[in-house]
Amino acid sequence: AINNKPDINEETKKKVLKVAQELGYVRNATAVALRTRKTGTIGVVIADNRNPFYAEVLNGMEVAASGKNYHIILANTQRDYKKEEEAINLLLAKRVDGLLITPVQDRDDDIKNLIEANIPFVVVGRDFENIEVDAVYNDEIKGGFLATENLIKKGHKRIALINGFLHKSPAKGRLEGYKNALKKYGIPFDDALVSVGDIDVKDGYERTKQLLEKGLNFTAIFAYNDMMAFGSMQAIREKGLRIPQDIGLVGYDDIPFSSLMNPTLTTIRLQKQELGAESVTLLLSRINGKRKEIKKKMLDVELITRGT
């Protein structure tokens, strides 16, 4: 009853818990772990907890884990590959039952090690091309297509893309979607309009500023994420240009601040909470031995049209 096993009826559970409470019983997690070989913990490796996108994904994880009597132990890597390695090792030392990983990049060394060590894990927010792993991720190609198509339908033909590094699968997918939209509407791809780099507000500002100074005559920007789009807004305004009258703008993620900007940001909405929750479900099915085959789940995305 104290361990909340389903084969014990509710009335018995209540009686046992009442007596345990009166006697001051405290469930010893270490003793349980030794008996069951499980600690009831999930290690989460988050790429950047400063980004509101990850905050929402993490919330989805915590709610889903809590519903299954699991606790989350969090490690933030600040988008640093070395810190990612350290975080994985630290969490494994704490004997977590499994790992949820939002990788810094698509390097497969750590992933191969986890597979060889038979450690349950799920890759969150992306997939690996060269290794078969459990993964939950977004339809990035569709997202890139919808963002670009939205700008094309508003009359834009010279559309800049400020993207993430292409060693990350989300950036690859969004670039492919961008190219697909251009091709569908008969607009030639211009490599000069694509800027690749880091993915925060500062980088969005710097790269938009650089593109504007090059005189490339673009009339719209598709930003890798909303954080970069916020930086773009500042650079555009400093140039004395108006949004969307002079330059259209579409972000990606639909973080809460997007609807509070002036003008409000048109963006691609991801199912962030679902991304977190589905990853927990996938991991627990692996931890509990209910599944041996590799499973992947791709979540749908949608265009949210606002003021930019």
Features:
Peripla_BP/Lac1_sug-bd_dom; 3 domains; alpha/beta; single chain; about 300 residues; DNA-binding transcription factor activity; six-stranded parallel β-sheet; 10 helices; Rossmann fold; elongated
CATH H level of the largest domain: which superfamily? Response regulator
CATH architecture of the largest domain: 3-Layer(aba) Sandwich
List the secondary-structure elements in sequence, H or E. Answer: HHEHEHEHEEHEHEHEHEEHEE
Cα gyration radius (Å):
23 Å
SS content category? alpha/beta
- The averaged pLDDT comes out at 89
CATH topology title of the largest domain:
Rossmann fold
Lateral strand order in the biggest sheet: 2-1-3-4-5-11
Give the CA-based shape: elongated
InterPro entries: HTH_LacI (IPR000843), Lambda_DNA-bd_dom_sf (IPR010982), Peripla_BP/Lac1_sug-bd_dom (IPR001761), Peripla_BP_I (IPR028082)
Protein name: HTH lacI-type domain-containing protein
Pfam families: Peripla_BP_1
Organism: marine sediment metagenome
